Amino acid sequence: MTPVIETLLSHRSIRKFEDKPLTEEQVTVIIDCARAASSSSFIQCTSIIRVIDPEKRRLLAEYTGNQAYVAEAAEFFVWCLDFNRHLQIKPDAQLGYTEQTLIGAIDTALMAQNALAAAESMGLGGVYIGGIRNNPDKVADLLNLPDYVAPLFGLCLGYPAQDPEVKPRLPSSLIVHTDEYQPINKDALAQYDEVVRNYYRTRTGGTKEMTWSEQIDGTLGKEARPFIKTFLERKGLSTK
């Protein structure tokens, strides 16, 4: 097993960090690794906002649902889909297509995953913050994001001050299909549900017992952010 594989398979979300800064060299390497990610048609439609200002960090922690680690982590980055840069290069660029929004989201996620993997390979830890989309207008105003730029998620990075278990993922038998899409293997799902139940029971000392299926039932039983489509359209994205 290579060091790269060991790093990827040992991923955990870290939400408690030591009060220790990263060096500028570390930050540069992490960003360089992000920049090295694949880009659809070489469009390179991502911008990264490195948030250093303590007051902006405090507000972002509030906007994301009072997630304290947004303010406490050594570094916090907001990852944005960005077609405004292209508009500055080509003022008559044909923008607003849904396919462009998909490309931006995919490219940005690939870059962010490179960044986190690089950070973890250095002994750092992190956690993605989807709560950035809880208040996208406030985040956009705070970070002065122009049209055709949308905040997708955040990323906390720092030295871990906790050592959580690796969260059990769906087994390959439930996600890998051969030649065509296949119905869910209910026996494999039942086994995985018990693994997840035991994980939560152990992690919380018995205060939470939930299967993955139960979690999905709760999560997908309602629309989490019904305002996102309108926000994207106001930014000039996914209008056609």
Supply database-style keywords.
single chain, 45% helix, 2 domains, globular, NADH Oxidase, oxidoreductase, alpha+beta
Describe this structure in words.
Residues 10-159 form the Nitroreductase domain. GO terms for molecular function: oxidoreductase activity. Belongs to the flavin oxidoreductase frp family. The protein is of the alpha+beta class and 240 residues long. It has 2 domains: 3-166, NADH Oxidase; 172-204. Helices cover 45% and strands 12% of the residues.
Class from helix and strand fractions: alpha+beta
Q: Gyration radius, to the nearest Å?
A: 19 Å
Strand order across the largest sheet: 1-2-4-3
* Count of alpha and pi helical runs: 11
Strand portion, in percent? 5-15%
Average of the residue pLDDT scores: 97
Query: Biggest sheet, in brief?
Result: 4 strands, antiparallel
Keywords: Flavoprotein, FMN, NADP, Oxidoreductase
Organism: Enterovibrio nigricans DSM 22720
GO molecular function: oxidoreductase activity
Protein name: Nitroreductase
